[in-house]
Amino acid sequence: MRFNLTLILIVVGVSWGLTAPLSKIAVSTGHHYLGLLIWQIIVMILSLGIVQVIRRKYFFSLSVNSFLRFGLVALMGSLLPNSIMYKTYFHLQSGVMSILIAMVPMFAFPLVLVLRMENLEFKRLLGVLLGAIAIALLILPQLNLTNMGQSGWIVFGLLSPLCYAIEGVWINKIGLAKLDPVELVLGSSIIGLIVLLPVTLLNGYWISPLVNWGPAEIALTISSLIHSLIYVSYIWLIGRAGVIFASQTSYICTASGVGFAMLLLGEGYSIYIWGAVVLMLIGLIMVRPTK
Fold it and tell me: Is the pTM of the predicted complex or chain greater than 0.70?
């Protein structure tokens, strides 16, 4: 079971890492970030709706508890963090964004300790700290922190992993009620569409799918498909292994995101990256689920 969970963790992290350069390509033509987000939500609804049809599950729980979870995931797992990420992609490299998302475990770890959801274990604490050191190795040689404009976008970008950490801890604490992960993400996407669509249309941010498709539109669609299916796996992983373990996807996402950025976007990085990758993998092993 521990091996299977770790394998799923790696698949989720690598797949999410691929969405970073794809998102960078998506913002390259100047589409508004809300237009990009609404397109992502629509793709998620369509893809997960097909999954529900294949599973022959046409209805799911619509209780007060269900809507509480839909609202939580819609706000903290989609609308806020993805808006922040798409906005920040205009100003930072794809690889840097992959680095920032690795802050999820660093935000989640103190939250679960304060809420007494997990006991303080030195080995797991050390694993998270190794991840933090890995981030430092990745980010410090790459960034000119004397540039206050860039530093501001880095700080703004950190709000995205904070949202994911809060969402993961909260879902881990209250559970899914009578929902399964597919139903939870699908329901939250529908709520997100209802909230965001009027704002997008009224402000002229809508991106018509009838326009000539270029690299940006293709990249956004592929990224959205990956995000929908992998996010379901992430929610499932939280329930099976806990939020601290599940949040280690951000380490894998960082390593793969930097690698994909080098391959797809030609972004260049230093030798510090490879030392950071080693530290990430060691940290991953140290925070894997206990028996």
Answer: yes
